[in-house]
C-alpha cells in the first residue's frame, strides 16, 4: 500500500494564495459589474451604484442595440474582417513559414533576416497609412485585413514548430510521388492542426479586437468595426447619463446600453475559446523544446 506524501503548507503559501485570490476577484468584479448593469431593468437602475446581481432582469438594452443599424453594420464588418482575415493569415503564415524551413530555397537567409528585422524595427503609423492610401484601400475593410495578415513573431513560432516535424514523413511522401505542394497539404497541414488551432485563436482575437487600424483607415461610420462602435458608445456618447428610447418607448439609461454593447462584443470570443482551449496549450508548446 503506497502513501502519497503531501506538501505541508507554509505561511508563504497561505499569503501567496490569498494574494492571488484577491487579485483574481479584483479582475472578475469589473466583468460582473458589466454583465449586471447590462441586464438591469431601466426602471430600477440607479447611476453610480454597484450591481453584483441585477435587482430586476431585463433585455431592453440588448433589444435596443440589436435593433439599431449601426450595431448590425458593425457586427457584419467585424465578422467579415475576422473570418476572411483569419483564413488568409493562417494560409500566409504557414506557407511562408514552411518555405523558411527549407534550406535549399534560394534567398531563404535573406527572407529570414527580413522577418527578424521586422521583429525589431517597425515602419510606424505614417508609412503604413501612406501604403494603404497608395493601394487605394482607405475606407475599405481590406485595409484592416491586409495590414495584419501576419507578423514576425507568428512566423518564427510556426517555423519552430514545422522544424520539429519528422523529415522522414516528407521523404516518404515524395517517394510515393507527392509534389512539394502535395507534401505541404497532405502531410504538413494535417500534422500542424494543434498549431493551426492555436493560431486561429490568436489571429481571430486580433482581428475581432481591431480598433486602432479601423479608427485610422475607416472614415465611413457604416464600415466601423464593433470595437470602434463600442468606443463611440462608451467614450464619445453623452456622459450626463441621458438615455435613448427603446423599442418599447421606454427611456433606457445610457450606461446600460454601453455595458450591453461591451458584452455583445465579448461574447463571440468567449464562446469560441473553450472549443479551441484543448488545442491551444498543445499547439503553443509544440516545437518549443527540441532534443
TrEMBL record:
Pfam name, any one: BPD_transp_1
InterPro entries named among the record's database cross-references: MetI-like (IPR000515), MetI-like_sf (IPR035906)
Segments passing through the bilayer: 12-35, 79-100, 112-130, 142-162, 183-208, 257-276
Localization per record: Cell membrane
Topology of the protein relative to the lipid bilayer: Multi-pass membrane protein
Recorded family membership: Belongs to the binding-protein-dependent transport system permease family.
Name of the protein described by the UniProt record: Carbohydrate ABC transporter permease
Alphabetized UniProt keyword annotations: Cell membrane, Membrane, Transmembrane, Transmembrane helix, Transport
Domain ABC transmembrane type-1, first and last residues per copy: 75-275
UniProt superkingdom: Bacteria
